[in-house]
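ENTRY TYPE: paired fold submission
RECORD: A
CONTENT: sequence, then structure tokens
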Amino acid sequence: MRRLALYAAVACSVIQGQHAFDIHIQERTAQVEPTRLRATVESLASFGTRHTLSDSVKPNRGIKAAQQWIINHVKSLQAIQGSRLQLYEERFTAGGSGRLPQPVELVNLGAILPGVDSSRKKEVLIIAGHYDSLPSGQDPDADGPGAVDDASGVALCLEIARIMAAEKPAITIYFVASAAEEQGLMGATHLAKRLKAEGFTVRGMIAADMVGNVQGINKDTDNTTIRCFSEGVPSIETETQKRTREALGGENDGRSREWARYVKRFGEPYSDNLDIWLMLRRDRVGRGGDHTPFANEGFPAIRFTDTFEHYDRQHQIPRVENGRRYGDTPDFFDENYCAKITRALLASFMHLGNAPAPPYDIAIGGNGTANTRLTWKLPDDPRISGLVLYSRRSDAIHWQKTKTLPKSTEITLQNVMLDNNVFAIATLDASGNESVPVYPTALISGR
């Protein structure tokens, strides 16, 4: 009886699978072609190596050959009937120390799908896979085919770009093949810093890095799960924000963590037999990826990586030693597994790309009372038709309940105790598209 009373005023529904299922998105996810994913991986691996300092002269080997292949591939996507894709090519110079001992021109490549909402020109979504590879010992002339790490991520990005080529999202989407990830996340760092300096808001960034291997070095095999890494506490948190977080208990509700939950919720229903694991850390222990520079700039950024890694196939020259095989070659790439992940990320990008702008200045109060009060502000977005209240018990990881609200700026939840529950608010449009839920960032004074 007490538990029923706790949620009676909220009138929530169980969250899994209860969002508006979009037939158009389902049709798009059905267009993911595993054979195209394999063809891209095999093409990129065929250049022998894509080390950032590899051969720049031969037409069929090295980083320059891979760059030209990506450019030509994007141009073929631009030729699709109704395509709105633009070629993305951003050149810059970096290096002079560490893994890049001399300065070199680097190139981020891919496609851009412009948003159609003129009032939201400075809002973007980004999905990226790095196109460089790394052999044993940092030798730029050695073979390093980089099939799973990370031709698989590039293939995923290009396949989503192909399927979305004629779409008209509200905000702009970048499909990025990033440069020099293996030399210190240089391509991603350049893009994140440039967007921040130019006043862009990144609504969500995904690094798809190693999304095609199903067998781990420990012999475990799994083609039904994928890891999603996200930070809980923002890396750019100020001392004032820290004190507020400590008062509200938001260690598990940073913007990147909410973005991860969103991708799980809106991606899984469109990809059969795929479970997205929400990993409660920024990345694997002691390691990083292209999402890291975006998180460092305060943007919500997450990483998707195979559940079980096989370290004999990472950063290795292909070879056999003592009967043990090394190397990241295309025969270890599972295109059907990669297709599952592609469908999930495609669906989440289509949902958020069409969603209204999120609420802001969420505040919560009611401590010392039997009720919980939430207030918020709404952006000037005419497509907002309502809101969604997310809730979970304070000991839970995933959102457990939702409630649809009319367009408003506050709610009081009768007989719902603040300390035992966690809440967030998302905006909603008439088609059922939701923003990423926003966690409270202020405490309402008084009772």
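RECORD: B
CONTENT: sequence, then structure tokens
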Amino acid sequence: MNTPCYVFDFDQFEKRANDIANALPGIPLTYSIKANPFLLNDLPEVIRHVEVCSPGELEICKELNVPGEKIIYSGVVKEQEDIHEALTYGVDIITCESLRHAALIQQENVKVKTILRLTSGNQFGMSIEDIEYIIENKDDFFNNLDVIGLHFYSGTQKNLKKIIRDIEKIEKALIYLKTKLEYEPSFIEYGPGLCVEYFKENNEELELKHLKEAAAIINKFAAKHPLGIEMGRFLAASCGTFFTKVMDAKSSMDTNYVLIDGGIHHVNYYGQKMAMEVPNINVISEGYRYSIEALCLNKNEVHEEDKKSAYCICGSLCTVADVLVREAELPELNVGDVLCFERCGAYSVTEAPALFLSRELPSIYTKRGDEITLVRDVIKASAINLKGL
């Protein structure tokens, strides 16, 4: 393996999915593939659906032969051709984000299993009044919509108080619809947006604690209503590692700088705040006999020293914004050392500005047991950016 590269561990992905399933018994689990589509090749059995949020994500599922009955087609700005393509492929459920979406679905002239998205107060979803209008007129204007339920998602990295408020808002909407229209859903998709602890040493322990606390609330709700849970970040984050090599090192104005062949166009945790935080970083010394493959298989020890120094870790982009960590205490770093950024399984591979400055897109590997597979080789961003020039 050459750097920079990602390694996604299917065993860890499956473990996290099973942890969730055990905490939420009997509640179907949906994986939102925008977190990391490269995990689609080996989905854990406990995942009932995958959520796609764009025509491009649907194309990925089609190319990988993900069965249509496993797909919930969500997302805003769905056009007629997108809805038709999804239904032709046989997706199980389509979410409805607006009255216009409802009208577009209606034009398909087939019964469509639909969930209506209730807004949390942003650009996504509909007001309770619009939802009421669709349900009230489903026999006259929207007779092709088989409105099986509601969809609610208010964001990611939420604490328990915010999850409780979410549940209260859903409960309020359900009471309103039952009282006014005698409507009771057969399915409610909810994304709790559980917090991933990127910058804590005991991250796994803390995340499972968050899961346990949220499960008490979610299971109580699920005992009364037909609930499904959708997750992306919390499912995928812990299964990914990003490997990047130190390419240069220097001291300037009392600061030790190291420049790596990766950067903010490859590592993106949450909220663009990572330069002010210190994620878990392992170091493989260039002086050691090592390979990234061996490290992935736990056959080499990560370099550790008693003596550590403070480093500012900067990427390969020609912008002052390309700072991954402002100050990290690490063993002595030299050119050729490899830094391993943990918890890069969600969003980093797709959300970071990969085409900026036409640097190469990293190679991607997956791991299952002792088998490591190259699933995407390096892509030259210049070839993409040259299109049409």
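NOTES ON RECORD B: The chain has a mean pLDDT of 92. The chain has two domains: 10-237, 239-385.
STATUS: closed
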